[in-house]
Amino acid sequence: MKVLLINNDGGGFADHVELPEGTTVIDLFRRTVKHRGPEDYLIRVNRQPAARDEALKEGDRVSITPLKIEGAG
Amino acid sequence: MTNEKRRRLRAALKIHVALAAGRASRPTPFLPLDAWRDLTRSARLAAIAADRGWTTAASAARANYRRSAAELSDRLAACLRVLDADDRPGGLQSPQEILADLAALEAEFGEVEVDLKEKTVSVTTDSVALEGVDLGRFDLALRWDLESDSGSYSVIALDPNPAAEEETTTHPHVREEALCEGDGRVPIRRALEEGRLLDFFLLVRQVLVTYNPGSAYVPLSRWRGVPCADCGASAPDDEADRCDRCGDDLCPDCSTSCRDCSGTCCSDCRDRCGGCDESFCPSCLSACRTCGESRCHGCLEADVCGDCRDDETDEPETHVNDGETDEHDDDAAVPLAADETVTTDAPPATTAAADAPLTAVHAVRLGEAAVPA
After folding, report:
1. Is residue A28 within 8 Å of A56, Cβ to Cβ?
2. Is the pLDDT of residue B329 over 50?
3. Residue of chain B with shortest Cα separation from A40
4. Interface predicted TM-score (ipTM) of this complex, two decimals
5. pLDDT 10s digits, B110-122
6. 3-state secondary structure of A17
7. CA quadruple A54, A59, A60, A65: dihedral positive or negative?
8. Which segments of chain B does DSSP mark as H helices, in order?
9. Which residues neighbour B97 within 8 Å (Cβ) at sequence distance 6 or greater?
10. Which of B164, B224, B312, B323 has the fewest other C-beta atoms within 10 Å?
11. Do residues B211 and B130 lie in contact, with contact meaning Cβ atoms separated by under 8 Å?
12. What pLDDT was estimated at residue B372?
């Protein structure tokens, strides 16, 4: 299945990714973010908060946004 | 369809049109030919220096070659990013997706305001508190008709609690209603270019709720001003002074200047001259060599203070009597008390007859004979 992944951590890219059927939100997160946990991110599926074990579907839109983003001065 | 939904749909369409127009007008990136020329020149010079055995020149040329290569690499990567942005499947959101973003913004922020006349979309954050400093709520207002950069949105403090030293700094990372995005710059830019309004506002909010002490317009430690080391009051950073000796911060009221060198002193570092009672820094005071008390240079003469010099002049002195009477002469006549008597010493003899034994009755006078007793 293909989902739209928006990774707002760093580059902020939006890409379609091919995933096996039954892939959950936490599966996709761990595949995308290697060194930090989901508690450090806002994770939205189709613009709504989602449970970590929610199974993704074809055409879903998943966004991952860091909770802490350092500004400057 | 309600009026609000109708307004949002019109806004979504207008936003899509504005973004599409922006993409169409985006110029094709130029090839970095100037960087290429620099690289070829650097490569040639490095090769010449190496061939001729010019060790020092070869090292410098090689470093320059490396710099030119890095510059060209960066410029090519930037070109690629621009070209990729046009080709990305995430590209520009459809009006329906923009409309979905507007609905999600309402769920996320509680309210979203769309102003078709001003061409703005606005949301309000919850009150932001960082390290105990309450900065209040912020209104995030996006102008969709402006180019998708940091100038296209404003961060407006609704309950301003600005920095003491700079009233336009309403947040450590916001000055004059502009957010300094830091690490958020690239994803914010990309979200704006693609019309992902929900992502854009979420990213801006997360920058606002994150404090980066290493890079702030005004750090929170100075938000309420600089605490005075003497009185504890808070002074704006640009009005605070600093003790030249210990480095403590001082408010304008507690800052004192040394009367001699004009250096700034706190209450712990300054001292008073015991003579003139003025304030001085310790370097401008010296000890009287007689009593050891601190005096300024103006109150010392030959390292002796005025008090000690006065004491020295009080001691008795020998001097020549010039025959003139002096009303302050210590030998002046003093009235006697009733029970006092005067005892005077016999004046010393001054004639030859003084050596002769004295007669008991009368002294010999001319024409007379001595009469024995």
Report:
1. yes
2. no
3. B206
4. 0.95
5. 999 999 899 999 9
6. strand
7. positive
8. 3-24, 33-51, 55-87, 95-109, 185-193, 197-208, 306-313
9. B195
10. B323
11. yes
12. 58
B103: nearest Cα among B91, B120, B90, B121: B121
- The Cα-based distances of B201 to A31, B185, B187 in angstroms read 25, 13, 11
Whole-number pLDDT of residue B84: 65
- Contact list in A for residue B81 (CB cut-off 8 A) is none
Q: How many CB atoms lie within 10 A of CB B130?
A: 19
Closest among B67, B85, B74 to B23, alpha carbons compared: B85
Q: Collapse the DSSP code of A55 into the 3-class scheme (helix H, G, I; strand E, B; otherwise coil) and give the result.
A: strand
Residues A66 and A8: beta-carbon distance below 8 Å: yes
Cβ count within 10 A of residue B126 = 12
Cα–Cα dist A31/A36, whole Å: 11
Contacts of A71 in chain B (CB under 8 A): 172-173, 179-184, 207-208, 210, 212, 215-216
The residue of chain A with its CA nearest to that of B211 is A70
Helix or strand or coil: residue B103? helix
Contacts of residues B231-238 at CB distance under 8 Å and 24 or more positions apart, as own/partner, are B234/B164, B235/B164, B236/B164, B236/B165, B237/B164, B237/B165, B238/B165
Contact B215 A72 (CB under 8 A): yes
Q: How far is A22 from chain B (nearest CA, A)?
A: 23
State which H helix or E strand residue A49 sits in: strand A48-49
Pair of tokens at residue B85: 């942005």
Q: Is the dihedral of CA B32, B34, B36, B42 positive or negative?
A: negative
- Checking B222-228 for CB contacts under 8 A at 24+ apart, the result is B222/B163, B222/B164, B222/B165, B223/B133, B223/B163, B223/B164, B223/B172, B224/B133, B224/B164, B225/B164, B225/B165, B226/B251, B228/B253, B228/B254
Taking an 8 Å cut-off on Cβ atoms, the answer to whether B184 and A71 are in contact is yes
Query: B3, B192, B194, B25: which is closest to B116 by C-alpha?
Result: B3
pLDDT at B159: 95
Answer whether 0.90 is exceeded by the pTM. no
The pLDDT tens digits of the residues spanning B196-222 come to 999 999 999 999 999 998 889 988 988
What's the DSSP call for residue B223? Answer: T
Question: How are beta strands B153-157 and B285-287 bridged, if at all?
Answer: unpaired
